[in-house]
């Protein structure tokens, strides 16, 4: 049985990843900040009791990531999905209105945490069968694609994590680990809003399909949910 670990699994894209992998017979390790309030996630855990676990994890707290790794020290992790992310209030990321506290918070969650997750869980990933690290990023982190400006906080935190994962792909290649960046599209979630273009099911189905077929030749790539390659 393959195992997937998902951060930010209590809602939106993370919850849908958990739902789809559980339905496919995987062992799911679902992480979120407040498990007791994650009603939909707990219903999934009840449905797939023998192979679904929920762990409290605030990815901003690096010590908690280390504690999780210790708790899971004997569990091979085939796919790590770095999904937890934040999008600070829009006006706090615009020129002349920047909240530098929000900016640091975005980097803690969107950039620092994905790298720390890999550092802490590297042995569990390396001893698995599939050895995949997937980090959910955004096309807004593409410098080449930026035609509208603004969104300084979110754009920079995602451009930074893109760089992090590109380096991870190179550094982890000798251990046979594949590291990819996935753009989920503009998704109908609390972050994406009701006016977004696609559902969480469409987005995750697409990204999961990519993960089903990635090979070592894909490591370090920036791929959209529909399979298109995103420019840096």
Radius of gyration: 17 Å
Structural class: alpha/beta
In DSSP terms (H or I, runs of 4 or more residues), the helix count works out at: 6
What would the principal axes of the Cα set say about the shape? Answer: globular
User: Low-confidence runs (pLDDT<50, min 5 residues)?
Assistant: none
Quote the average pLDDT: 95
Order of helices and strands: EHEHEHEHEHEHE
Distance from N terminus to C terminus (CA atoms, Å) equals 35 Å
Query: What is the number of strand segments?
Result: 7
User: Could you give the order of strands across the largest sheet?
Assistant: 3-2-1-4-5-6-7
Describe the largest sheet. 7 strands, parallel
Percent range for β-strand residues: 5-15%
**Fraction of residues in H or I helices:** 25-40%
Structure report:
The model has no long low-confidence stretch (mean pLDDT 95). The protein has a seven-stranded parallel sheet with strand order 3-2-1-4-5-6-7, with helices on both faces. Helix 1 packs across helix 6, helix 3 runs parallel beside helix 4 and helix 4 packs parallel to helix 5. By secondary structure, the protein is an alpha/beta fold. The protein contains six helices and seven strands.
């Amino acid at each position: 049985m393959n195992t997937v670990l998902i951060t930010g699994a209590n809602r939106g894209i993370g919850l849908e990843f958990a739902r789809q992998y559980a339905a496919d017979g995987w062992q799911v390790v679902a992480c979120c900040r407040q498990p007791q309030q994650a009603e939909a996630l707990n219903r999934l855990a009840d449905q797939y009791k023998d192979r679904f676990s929920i762990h409290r994890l605030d990815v901003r707290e690096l010590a908690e990531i280390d504690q999780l790794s210790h708790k899971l020290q004997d569990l091979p992790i085939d796919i790590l999905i770095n999904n937890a992310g934040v999008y600070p209030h829009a006006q706090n990321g615009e020129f002349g209105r920047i909240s530098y506290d929000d900016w640091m918070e975005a980097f803690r969650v969107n950039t620092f945490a994905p790298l720390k997750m890999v550092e802490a869980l590297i042995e569990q990933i390396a001893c698995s069968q599939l050895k995949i690290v997937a980090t959910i990023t955004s096309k807004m982190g593409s410098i080449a694609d930026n035609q509208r400006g603004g969104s300084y906080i979110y754009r920079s935190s995602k451009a930074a994590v893109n760089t992090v994962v590109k380096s991870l792909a190179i550094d982890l290649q000798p251990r046979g680990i594949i590291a990819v960046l996935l753009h989920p599209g503009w998704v109908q979630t609390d972050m994406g809003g009701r006016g977004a273009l696609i559902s969480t099911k469409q987005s995750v189905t697409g990204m999961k399909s990519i993960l089903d077929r990635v090979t070592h030749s894909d490591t370090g790539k920036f791929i959209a949910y529909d399979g298109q390659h995103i420019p840096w």
